[in-house]
Amino acid sequence: MILEEKYILSNGIEIPKLGLGTWFINDKDAGQAVKDSAKIGYRHIDTAQAYENEKGVGNGIRACGVKRTDMFVTTKLAAEVKSYKEAVASIDGSLKRLGLDYIDMMIIHSPKPWAKFHEDDHYFDGNREAWKALEEAYKGGKLRAIGLSNFEKADIDNILEICTVKPMVNQILAHISNTPKDLIRYCQEKGILVEAYSPFAHGVLMKNQEVIEAAKKYDVSVPQLSIRYCLQLGLLPLPKTANPAHMKNNADVNFEISEEDMQSLKNMEHIKDYGEASMFPVYGGKSS
Ligand SMILES: NC(=O)c1ccc[n+]([C@@H]2O[C@H](COP(=O)([O-])OP(=O)(O)OC[C@H]3O[C@@H](n4cnc5c(N)ncnc54)[C@H](OP(=O)(O)O)[C@@H]3O)[C@@H](O)[C@H]2O)c1
């Protein structure tokens, strides 16, 4: 059962292979979503300062009935935080809002502030400052693992050149039809686990006829096919839902996609229209 399987991060820490995404789950609903997911067997929750639901997620972690050491919680340092001083305060802010003694993993949400996501400046200095703060919190026992999100090769190299602790993950947009092969290979070669966010393209894959047909062939839902696809590439998928029936469906992925079908799903024409979500920088838009 996938909920019991784990990847091992480069520092030896175990991370459950399937995580629950919480973007767009309100703070007041997040606790219940965490509790429902834990009851089903989820042990890995993905939140972020930007989702404004860390408080609810933390309440859920503390109230879900699962031992704290058996849960894995990731949060993200806001994309706009690009100085050492701000990063130190920001990490402590997350600990406080979550109400936890330690956070399992904290990652830099984006190398560029959202409003500048499509501009040329890589904020190399600012990311090094943020990384220094994460390293210190890691060494001080506040964080069990540290990592990156939305980092391209140049952004990763910028950290690798100066770090004393290597990033353990890079969380990126990866789903059927959009699989950044070179970046994935680069991360994996460097021992960086790749987490796949928006594994259903924020829901858009469910409307795609080609993907619907591929799922039918295996007698599974599009979400199940999408999760299996990520897992077979060695990625860690983070499907979002607050619906317990969907949580169960997403964890029921005990089947194998053939090599031939993996290739055609990988090479499928890139779905670039993310519908209403297209305004978000991660899908090419400009909203902050
Ligand atoms: N690092 C970053 O920059 C970044 C960016 C985007 C996302 N993320 C992370 O990745 C997570 C997932 O990405 P996402 O929120 O963009 O979207 P997603 O997981 O690709 O898709 C979510 C959509 O799929 C639906 N869904 C989920 N399971 C389903 C099922 N079994 N059957 C039918 N519909 C189902 C959800 O509806 P219901 O809620 O109704 O189930 C929701 O509309 C986020 O929550 C967040 O944790 C990170």
Which short descriptors sum up this protein?
single chain; 288 residues; alpha/beta; TIM Barrel; 8-stranded parallel β-sheet; two-stranded antiparallel ribbon; 38% helix; binds NADP nicotinamide-adenine-dinucleotide phosphate
Q: Could you walk me through the main structural features you see in this protein, from its secondary elements to its overall organization?
A:
With 288 residues, the protein is an alpha/beta fold. The protein has a single domain, classed as NADP-dependent oxidoreductase domain (TIM Barrel, Alpha-Beta Barrel), CATH 3.20.20.100. The protein contains 10 helices and 10 strands. The strands form 2 sheets. It has an 8-stranded parallel sheet with strand order 3-4-5-6-7-8-9-10. The chain has a two-stranded antiparallel sheet with strand order 1-2. Strand 7, helix 5 and strand 8 form a beta-alpha-beta unit. Helix 2 packs across helix 3. The chain is globular and about 50 Å long. The model has no long low-confidence stretch (mean pLDDT 97). Bound molecules: NADP nicotinamide-adenine-dinucleotide phosphate (NAP). NADP nicotinamide-adenine-dinucleotide phosphate binds next to helix 9.
Concise account of the structure shown:
The protein has 288 residues and is of the alpha/beta class. It is 38% helix and 15% strand.
